[in-house]
Amino acid sequence: MEDLGFNSFCKTKESRMPVYDNNQGISRFPEFLKSECKSNLLLGSEKLRWLTPKAFLELDNIVGLVKLVVGNTSAGYYKELENCDTYIDLRYIPELSCIRRDPVGIEIGAAVTISKAICALREAFRIESPSEGAIVYKKIAAHMEKIGTKFVQNTGSIGGNLVMAQREHFPSDIATILLGAGAFVNIRSGTAYETVSLEEFLERPHLDSKSVLSSVKIPLYRKLLFETYRAAPRAHGNALAYVNAAFLAELSSCGSSGGAVLNKCLLAFGAYGKKHAIRAREVEKLLTGRVLTARVLYEAINLVKATVVPEEGTGSEAYRSSVAVGFLFEFLSPLADATIGISRCTLSSKDAEENYEEVFQLHIDYRPVGEPIVTSGAALQASGEAVYADDIPSPENCLHGSFVYSTKPLARVRGIQVNPKSQSNWISGLINYKDIPKGGKNVGSMTIFGSEPLFADDFTQCAGDRLAFLVAGTQKEADVASRLAIVNYDLENLEAPILTVEDAVARSSFFQVPPFLYPKEVGDFSKGMAEADHQIFSAEVKIDSQYYFYMESQTALAVPDEDNCMVVYSSSQCPEYVHATIAQCIGVPEHNVRVITRRVGGGFGGKAIKSMPVATACALAAHVLRQPVRIYVNRKTDMIMAGGRHPMKITYSVGFKSTGKITALKLDILVDAGIYTDISPVIPSNFMAVLRKYDWGALSFDIKVCKTNTVSRSAMRGPGEVQGSYVAEAIIENIASTLSVNADCVRKINLHTHDSLMLFHPDSSGEVPEYTLSLIWEKLAQSSEYSQRREMVSEFNKCNVWKKRGLSCVPIVHELIVRPAPGRVSILRDGSIVVEVGGIELGQGLWTKVKQMTAFALGLIKCDALEVDLLEKVRIIQADTLSLIQGGFTAGSTTSESSCEAVRLCCEILVERLRPLKEKLKTEMGSVQWEMLIQQAHMQVVNLSTSSYSGPDFSSNRYLTYGAAVSEVSSIQVEVNLLTGGTTILRSDILYDCGRSLNPAVDLGQIEGAYVQGIGYFMLEEYTRNSDGLVTSDGTWTYKIPTVDTIPKQFNVEILSSGNHKNRVLSSKACGEPPLLLASSVHCATRAAVRAAREQLQSWGYHDEYGPTFNLEVPAVMPTVKEQCGLDNVETYMKWKMSTHRVEQ
Ligand SMILES: Cc1cc2nc3c(=O)[nH]c(=O)nc-3n(C[C@H](O)[C@H](O)[C@H](O)COP(=O)(O)OP(=O)(O)OC[C@H]3O[C@@H](n4cnc5c(N)ncnc54)[C@H](O)[C@@H]3O)c2cc1C
What are the residue boundaries of the FAD-binding PCMH-type domain, all occurrences included (predicted)? Predict the structure, then answer.
């Protein structure tokens, strides 16, 4: 293995872990570890105790600052900064782990895990199911399946959840569903036991630390209706509900009218932003004993709306109340009157199928290039053996750092105090700008546009600005101490910060865009407008940010070396720039610094500029303290400091013919760049390059890159391009709504011809055969059965009141720029090959493609039986900035191909050097094996190592690639979801032009991954900030990335093999970023479904000022979708029904 400096960790000590042997059947937990688990001192400190009482009596004798725990999963929600001195594990007290069932109900011990409770309830349902009331057990179990993840269900307890709900106001599902089921709880206080209803328990003062919740009892009913509901950003897995509910009703039939009478009902609502789940007593009273007519139901839902009212500041308050209304409507409407009930349409039978198809054409001309070989290092990663920067064992005396960041946008920093609660002996240093050594500079990152400081000086410039680097003995200590640090701000006599792009315009606060980067206009806007039949003026689109959410957070390890040198391991997409920044910061020549990056656990642009201050802070601290310093930036800090994608505000005017043909477009674009330049000056050209996917007739624009007092934004996968592509679609949608035509027809009529493509993309349009978009559009229409599905969608929407579908086809034209890249190939004595490239393996398969290229290009020497063997002989090693210089940025999708090209050039040289020898040996011996050739070459002093720097000339370094996606969504509920605004992606079909793919398996993964990340941006991820601009979506509780729940139920991806592209590397085209843009098709399809819902709403007599030109924000999260479909759609519907139909009132 190559030198990571400390990689001896792999096999240094004899491991006591038994070797895994799959022939041995079940692997047992190692004996030696059992004894460690029994220890009372698991928390790594003499002061902390972990006790496991076996009976209540033992528990009574324990005193101190005690925390009772079962799974301790609550620590994931309430991040504990201060430790208790004693933890008491309740799992070994038998009474707390019992499950008892009798004819009147089931009693579940408080320490029983959610998983075990689910099994017990299912079993109880099986046994008791002759009784109709046993459905309660089944429904509760089904609801519990949606809680957290399997890990949370297997570890978290029922009691722990209820105590969190009671004591800490946790938005629990379990409290709501058990409240709806009329459950009771048993409490043990001292030696006394008490049984109270769950409702009373929740309303009581907080359970004191001496009391233990011992069990919960769910009664068994004989005959009733029971249902539970949950509206959450994800159907399954790790998303707390916006609101949940459970309803129980005992019914009888009214003798005279035959209508349903509710003899008894329990209506519980929870998680909506009140202290705890409640019973809607007033609504229950209203309904009990009455015949359920439409009028009664209408009264009941209005009362629910007045009852389920979140506290101010909860967020989406109106939405939550509206969903609560929807839940009750869904529960009761089938009983009230068949004509108002929820329609169930059978057209959806095809939806349930899940299937995935990947299609590509195999090219064998350049084998093994073009083959779908397995990703290099996949087994290492899957087994956990792969070494990332944070896996390198700490060298002796290694310290750990954590950033102290500002929470104010613009303030004088009077001082930073370490909180006395964090123990002072933890802390080794608090490094800030004053610690920059003589000759060094306060620099945290550098780009061609300038640099940004490592630390704020006496003024903080934004919330999230780096103020200091706190160094302690362990990462946990550093994190806790930095979180507790008290920053003394002074706001006196300071100007108000610039927090919006409008403020920036008012105060002329802009970054300069170098003229060579400012995009060029096309045609004459005024003339184009004059030709138009219709004009839209000053329409507005706003689009927000997105966080990178790489699996591996930012990491670095800096180790001081002899003679004032520094070795830094960094999870960076651009080690070369990390290197230069460190050298400048600590004031040493660049040859004193060495930055090593083996692989990065996901970057998406966030490990480029933003990785530099992380590594530089470690290097500075190591330089000052003369000790190794490392960091794994915790997720909260990373989310606050990362900046992410550029938010934008766009105002546009557009002219178009009645046919939908666009004649002119003018845009005023305000880009929120944050406080430092970063790479923001490239955003205008990226935005405009992708917006040019349509023929706009004439195109005019004004783009301002605004400097605001917010964290500086950085490149994120498709920087500026995602926004440009989306804005193009928003304009098309607006035109279609104005003309009342299908948006996809407007798209089609405005696709480029090759002539217009040359006008809009003069530097990259290529030859006529290279323009594949029309082909893609037609092919995809066929393979996705677009026309038939459009008819089906329309039919479906007619048949369904509470569920609507939408279909949309979105194209992309994406410009890519190939940058220079270095490479080195060396052939060792045994014939094995070692390769270095400037590009970093970020999970995008760069190493895999480079390996294939090396095998192909060296294979041209044509030794006997070579092809397959050579692939196995190649090892790509880590980037080392002193070994291979000019590595540049791994960015812009093209680094794989440029790294491949660099390697191809090296191989060409090596083959040239080896050829005479090979010919000679062939003549002498008839056959030449690779190993023999290399041995001979070593003996005959052939230089078997070479490097190169691939740099395409400016005339051919840009090219276009194309793709399109058709997405179909089902939005707005049926059964449960109409009323929630939930969206399901039923199907996506993608066709993407990869040229001749270097590795179709890798490229399919890139296309699918990018698309799903785009779905996150367009549909899920809310990167919110408070009024100071401080990021408040700072963890997985609030920031929801896509999961298996989100990906399309049917997902068909095809790579278009588009033949020869003479200026491309073996005719290949990049695919790392462009497919992300295609995910806007999901947003557009959702918009189509919402439009259908709004048309229906209008037919019920509801009107708003926007009509068909409504704005569906990005991301189209559930509250956004529901709002556009009418927060009071149920009430509107009922009013309309009652007034226009003769329903029973
Ligand atoms: C990632 C994640 C997702 C989640 N999603 C959901 C969700 O969607 N819906 C939902 O309802 N819940 C959700 N939860 C909450 C989860 O159900 C609870 O964290 C879990 O049930 C708590 O059980 P525990 O045994 O881990 O409690 P612990 O963390 O051990 O204890 C929790 C609290 O209760 C106290 N306590 C525990 N047992 C007793 C007792 N018998 N008597 C007195 N006090 C006691 C503890 O002192 C502590 O204050 C989620 C949790 C996580 C971590």
Answer: 43-223
